[in-house]
Amino acid sequence: RRVLEAEQRAQAAAAAARSSPTRLDSDEKAQLHSIIDPKLLERFEKFDGADANWQEWCIGFEATGEILGFTELLETAAQLSLTEEDCSNEQLGGEDNVIKSKAIWFILITYTKGKARSITRGTPKGHGALAWHRLKREYQSDQGGRLNAMLMGLLHPASWSTSQLPFAQLL
User: What is the pTM assigned to this prediction?
Assistant: First the structure.
């Protein structure tokens, strides 16, 4: 059943991608120009895609998002517990959020390089919330931290050293 649902979602996403225009119409351009200040972005630095530079760039991007009014959408998309479907433009709840998502996508595609741009390009055009979700998952996933914590727990089990029980009973 899950496989069938996943196939249906993939078909729906593909149909949406085919039906969405590849070019912005004049209304969309006007809406994007009304919320994106080119002078603000002139000094915004590009992200090279290196893991080591993510944190610093991310802080700048989120601060820019605050100025542009994208904070709520960025924070929602950054929740790693959400599915990718939850972050698609069709699920954002309102034309205002869709326009913001499109603006986020255009900013990300313009101000990222390397792996980060590849991730952004891998999302449907204009789906900035989804691109941000994927970037956050790639660069800030807590999966590595959890695995590291489990390994450290196995290597240095505090409860084993303080217990009076034999090792075999602790297992």
Answer: 0.67
